[in-house]
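Need tokens for this chain, all 549 residues.
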Amino acid sequence: MREALNNFLLLAAASATLSLVVAVFSIGILEPIIPLEQLQYLAYLIPAPLIIGLFLLFEPYFRAAEHMRGAERELLYVMALLTTYAANGVAPHIAIDRLRMKYKELFTEFSKIAERISRIRVLFVVDELEAMEFEGRRVSSQLISDLLLSSASIERRGGDIYAVLREKMRSIFNAVRENYKTLSNRMSFVADVILIAYGVLPMMLYTMFALFASEELALQSIFYSFFVNPLIGLALVYLIDLMYPKTPVKYDKYYRLIAYSLPVGAAVFVAVYAPWYFGLISARPEVISGLPWTGVAIAAAAIATCAPAAFRYHFDQRRLTAIDYALPSFVRDVAEEVKKGSTPSLAIITLSNTRSYGSALDKVIKKIALALEAGRTFEEAVQSVMREVSWYCRMSLTLMVEADLMGAKPEVFDEVAEVTREIIDSLRIARSSVMPLKIFGLITAVLVIGITSMLVRQVLEPIAMMAEGFYAAASSFPTLMGSLGVQLITPKMLPQLVDTVITGSVVTMILMGLMTGKMTDGTLAGGFVYVIIDMLLSMTAILLLFLVL
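Here are the structure tokens for all 549 residues:
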């Protein structure tokens, strides 16, 4: 502990020294180029090395915390798998070890815990239960610790393992359901914060910039629009992430698609921005604020960047949601066929010919049935469709495979059907509770660009037009005006401020779209569609107010 504290203090001192050296060196280099009064803004960069050093120092802690959060996201479904094993008389330590060997892709974080338990057993030469208890005392998550310690204790005492695990699973299910039911209220609180941060606050600040105009305030408006605004957005995204119930679903492929589309977005930005830059496009002559074309170029680039991922996400989610919603009926029908004496393989072949669960799930069932008819085992047939279905469907199919491998007992398939229904019902509750937030996100986006554009045309432009008359009248009362500190924006300063304000609003609407997706779908990938809609609205508003009306 003392060594860690010494390392922390050493790193903090080194980072602070580096910050000071960088600031002094920067001022010395830039002073001949940039006026000294503007170099004061470099003070904002002085803490940067210190912040980076602290981040690197605490990076292992952040990774460990993220690992525990990921394991807790998977815990409900791990409990379902352990309960299914327990219904077949399989001990928890065997079930956890089997999870480590077979389901690393399905349970990426919990499998790491199972791997540590295996290594502890070998390293300290202890039995499986002692290794589980050792890991249970080490982990920081109370839920995971309780599962490991309780499982080891009940297994050592010889109690009813199935009853204990089933009770814990039901308790977690109830907690998740209640969490989803209150999701709408929590997201409504975030929505109120968003309305204040991106509706009221910008209008107040930009009005102040117009009434107390100066070069320093112009730089501060840029700083607010392109630095403070995004930071507020990131903070709100983090707040939403903390409040939203966690699931182990990954959306990395959509984020990779965004990365691949960035060059296209950059090319679109240049293509749209160049005509305005070379004077080929301008506002109507009577519009003294000029044409804020930077915002239009950014909006077009955002659309080009988000479009591929947005459309792919939209169509994938439609198909996967149709499969998920039909899944409980399918699993229940398989359980009923097993009760009649059929094997799971024969039950699926029969249902593929006699029942329909919607086109999306029918295709999956038909593919499994064709693989079974071709002579593949039930496990092999299910594996052939795993990449075509959602994480929740993979979980249910995995439970069915394990139930089949352990004897295809009817009561076990009943348990699988009940678990599947509980999972999908929780998803339904979550999606229905946040549906109004989609409308709120779009309305707020309209308000942001509408209020900002009207602020420019109805407030900033009139203030700039009356500036010369105001200064002429104020020359008679220099002492009074100096004490008030009023310095109206002039027509010469207006175009730069307006371009900054409108561009900042476009950036705000990009963040709004992403946050709408985060509030409604629990992922930023769900916000790509709303980014496109918001950008179309912003482009329409700018073109109407500065080129048409």
